[in-house]
Amino acid sequence: MNQKFSFSIKDLSPEQLEDLLFQAEQEGRKYILSQIPSKELKTFDILIEFDTNERNIDCSIDIELVKHSQLDPQKITEKAAQIVFESIETFLKSDE
């Protein structure tokens, strides 16, 4: 399952943007790994990028679980994206 979400932001310095993307990715990873036992996780990738044309942050989360898993990857990726964007909002508010 691969889902993509976007978030529009104000201008940030390159250093602030790098910190923001790193922190957001770490929060998303931390949540996903807290929800899915490693033995049930077949593939996992999270990518957070800044689109310079649109001035948006895009978050792509790709999770594949083993066949016998009873977990709902869509629910987990949606919550992870929510956590990523909450992390972004917190970062931006602290920067104001």
Overview of the molecule:
It is a single chain. With 96 residues, the protein is α+β, with helices and mostly antiparallel strands. It has a single domain (2-95), classed as GMP Synthetase, Chain A, domain 3 (2-Layer Sandwich), CATH 3.30.300. The chain contains 2 helices and 3 strands; from the N terminus they run βαββα. It has helices spanning 14-35, 73-95; strands spanning 2-8, 41-51, 56-65. It has a 3-stranded antiparallel beta sheet, with helices on one face. β2 and β3 form a beta hairpin. α1 (14-35) packs antiparallel against α2. It is elongated, with a radius of gyration of 14 Å. The N and C termini lie far apart (36 Å). The relative contact order is 0.26. The mean pLDDT is 86.
Which helices and strands appear, and what pairs or packs with what?
Layout: E1 2-8, H1 14-35, E2 41-51, E3 56-65, H2 73-95
- Low-confidence stretches at least 5 residues in length (pLDDT < 50)? none
Q: Provide mean pLDDT, rounded.
A: 86
How is the main sheet built? 3 strands, antiparallel
Give the tally of β-strands: 3
Helix-strand pattern: EHEEH
Top CATH class = Alpha Beta
In the CATH classification, which architecture applies?
Answer: 2-Layer Sandwich
